[in-house]
Design goal:
There is one protein chain. With 327 residues, the chain is of the alpha+beta class. It folds into 2 domains: 5-192, OB fold (Dihydrolipoamide Acetyltransferase, E2P) (Beta Barrel); 199-324, no CATH class. It has helices at 5-20, 183-198, 200-204, 209-223, 237-249, 269-273, 300-315; strands at residues 26-36, 39-49, 59-68, 73-75, 87-101, 108-114, 129-137, 144-145, 155-162, 169-171, 176-177, 232-234, 260-261, 264-265, 322-324. The chain starts with a helix and ends with a strand.
Amino acid sequence: MRSSVPSLLAMAVVAAVGQTTSGQIKTVQVTNTVVHHTAVMTVTHTVVAGPGLPTNADVVVVGKVVEIEPGVVEVAPFKGARPEQMVKYKVANVKIDDPLVGAGGITRVRVGIPTEGSPVAGGRMTATVTVAATVTRIGDGPSVPGGIGLTAGLEGCFQLAKHPNADFYVLQGYPVRKTDPGFAKEVDRLKRYGRAMSDPVAALKAKDLGDRFETAQLILARYRTPRGSNMREPVPDEENKLIVALLKELPWLPPGGNRVRDGKLVPHREVLWYAVNPGEFGFQRPTPPKRQPGDPPVDFAKLMDEASAKFLAENGDKIKLKRFVEK
């Protein structure tokens, strides 16, 4: 497992959006103090972010921490880890009130939290440990102190991934607390995600274009996220056809060019185009025409609209999407 400051940034962005839970795209400033091996670093970024998708999560639940198990569990973060790389965890027991994704038939789940000073965070998280994090929501309230921790009595929504070498799960982002103003909206959003993943064909056949567009985003985000290996398999035929049909239906950019309306992405092809990795199927970006002095700027969006539409018309039946396989 390699250390990754971008992974750490992604973690903090999840924290930022998890705190607002409005379902809207926001500009956030993220400052992290991190420990990487023996070095201490401060990393600050300003990013545009939307609500995080649980693409790395195996389980998403609404529940309550009912117990923190006594003692500490020491686990290897990956196969072949050296003794000094072992990670110490406190383990919380979460009683499940609402199994949103992947938790059918169970009533409790164990969640491991790395103790302070652990060399890595375990699971699918970065090998850099966040020891302090501040998220400034620009134009949207005060800074939010970070730090992942679970205490008995905490109620909220938890996104979890199975630890590769232990009989518990690890957090994928900060829990959304039941007391957060946008909690109900976030739960509703994750329920839609769960429905889309449990029956993607039905969700891709929704009457509303916006619903189909959101479903395609959810599915493609999940499918292009490695699930513990680099192995891939073909996406089921009907799903594949419906996604390609949606690509053909959408304009490259929304009318007027405004990608966001009321805090949500307006359906358009550009968002999904790069998610399907069209170069894998032979698509080549158009070459802008040579400009002469005094010529207007090249409208690259128009070029991409025409090129992608032509490619879909000629090769749509040849596009066979793939998804990462769970290891």
